[in-house]
Design brief:
Blueprint lengths: L2 E6 L9 H9 L3 E6 L11 H14 L6 E3 H5 L10 H15 L4 E5 L6 H16 L6 E4 L2 E2 L10 E2 L9 E5 L2 H11 L6 H18 L1 E5 L16 H4 L5 H16 L1
Helix pairs in contact: 4-5, 5-9, 6-7
Length: about 260
Amino acid sequence: MKNSLIILAHQDDEIAIYPQIKRLIEHKHRVWVAYLTTGTLDASHSVERTGESIKNLLALGVNECQIRFLGDDYAIADKTLCRNLELAADGLLQLAKRIGVLSDIYTLAWEGGHPDHDAAHLVGVFLAQQLQLLDNCYQFSLYNGADLAWFRRVRLFYPLRENGRIQSYRIAWHMRYLGLKLTLGYNSQKKVLVWLFPLLLYHYVFDGRQHLQGVSLKRLLQKPHELHLRYEQNKFYSYLQFRHEVDGFVAKYFR
């Protein structure tokens, strides 16, 4: 049986890859899921957020013993993953050793949506490079602010053309329904769901595709896109601040 690893930053990031998780399981892959932060600002363990993600992953067919919360193990708080890349990278390497042979890796896209998402991309590509799996490493979009009209601030599941060729497939209607149903189960994220759910509904009804792209070492040296990044709009980091945090890691492993 093949082993596939999904690399996420926070509990609930799995909403961006529900269909691919289900597809891998249907194709008899053993799916592992690793979360790289605690999902809390003070690095404390969140019983509620952890429970929500476990419940939804179990509904997709993931075995609970294959869900790992590395952010809890290393006390990596929300919005600090870019400062803890070495810790996260070490955690992923240790997990990969325990898993054995990995066939493919899926990580959040390099898209400027959330600093933790882009940081997760960095350590995902790091792991793929260490395991000689760059050709079997794929990125998936969660949200970003690219190519938007002035009155819109975010796009959901929108792959950036800068990230290369897009591989897409249609999501079956029963899976679209399941995705919507599972998303409503994140009670801890009700405020987020107020703006997220309409976008998710629109995606499943009018687009209805899972988008995947390969990864590129060259892209790690480039700004995700030329407009204001979503995390800059939210005043989490400026792009220059983010680069200051990650460039040491990038120079060490990718140059």
